[in-house]
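## retry 2 of 3
previous attempt timed out at serialization; input unchanged, resubmitting
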Amino acid sequence: MSYEFDMNEALERIKAGAQIEGKDGVLAPLIKQLTEAALEAELESHLSQDIRNRKNGKSSKTVKSTAGSFELEVPRDRNGTFEPQIVKKHQRTLSDRIEQKILSLYAMGNSYTQIAEHIQEIYGVEFSAATISQITDKIVPMLQEWRQRPLEAIYPFVWLDAIHYKVKEEGRYLSKAVYTILGIRLDGKKEVLGLYLSESEGANFWLQVLTDLNNRGVEDILIASVDGLKGFPEAIGAIFPKTEVQLCVVHQIRNSLRYVASKHKKEFAKDLKPVYQAVSKEAAQAGLDRLEEKWGSKYPIVLRSWRNKWENLSNYFKYPTDIRRIVYTTNIIESVHRQFRKLTKTKGAFPNENSLLKLLYLGIENAQKKWTMPIQNWSLTLSQLAIFFEGRLDDALDL
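## retry succeeded, writing output
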C-alpha cells in the first residue's frame, strides 16, 4: 500500500542519525511516492487516448534504487496496453547510477561476488550474480556494434596476436585463442580493429577475418606484422595482395630457444643477435650462414625454421630505423593484452564466449582512452612510407 512521505518525520530521523540513502534510508519513501505519482500520471495520459479503457488495479514489484529498495505499486489498465516508461515492465533498478557503478566495477575486473559486496556496502542494496550478469549483458549489443563498425580505407601498419582463455562449450572447458587486430591509422594513432575467437586456425579462418576487415571498409594495408600463424600470409595475399607480411622476429627467437638445450641457450642467443640486429639483409644472411655452420648439426629444426620463413622474417631490413622499430615485432599489441590480463587475472575460465568478449571489449575501451597521441616520429615515418609504397598513400594524403 502507498503511503505519504512525512517530511518532519524524515528530518527527525536524519537528526537521530538515520541514513539518507541505502538500506532503510530516509529517502526511499519519498522516491517511492514520487515514482508512483509519476506512474499514475503516465497512466492517466495513456487512458485519455482511449476513452473505453479503464484503470485496473495495481501490481507490486521490488525496485532497487540508490536510496534503497522498496515495493513499488504499478498501476494497470483493463486493456493491458499501458507500457510505463519511467519504470518499465521488467525494470527492477530505478536508477542508472547503480547500473553504471556495476559496469564500472565489472570493467575493473571485479567478480560478480565482489561487485555484489561493493554495491551492498555503498547502497545497501542486494544484487544476485544473475542480476549482475543481466546488467553486464547490456554491453553485448555495444560489443556487436563495435565489431561491425566501419573501418578506415587504409592502415599503414596492422599487427595480429593471440591470447588464450578457457571457455565452456558443450559442458567442457576448452582453450580458445582470441586474436586481437591492432592498426595504426593515417593520423598515427592506434586502433583495435577487431576481436576474433578462433574455432580452428588455418588459412580458412584467416580468410574469414580478413574478409571481415575488407567488408568493413579496409581497402589496403601496407605492412602486416604477425607471429608466424599458419596460413595467415596466404590469406593476406588473397584479400590484400599488395600487403607486405612481416613475421614477428621476437616470436621467432622465443620459439627457436624453446628447442635449444639449456646449457646452449645463452651462447645460441648471443650467436643469433648478428642475424636479427644486422644493418642489412645481406649482413643478416651472412650471420644466418655462420649460425648454421656452428649449430646446424645440433639444432637442424631451428635453422630450417629460419630458412623456411626467411622471406617474411627479413622484410624489415629494407626500411630505415623508425619503420624497422615498428614492424619487426608484435610487441606493440602487448599494451592491449596487458589490459586483458589485468581484467581477467581472477577468472579461471568463462561460462561462454560472450562473457569473455564483453570483458575484453571493456579492456579495449580502457586502453584506447590512453591512445590520444600519434606514435613516435609519425610524420617522418609517414613520409618514408609514401616513398616506399609509391602511389598507395597519394589519395589519402592528397599528394
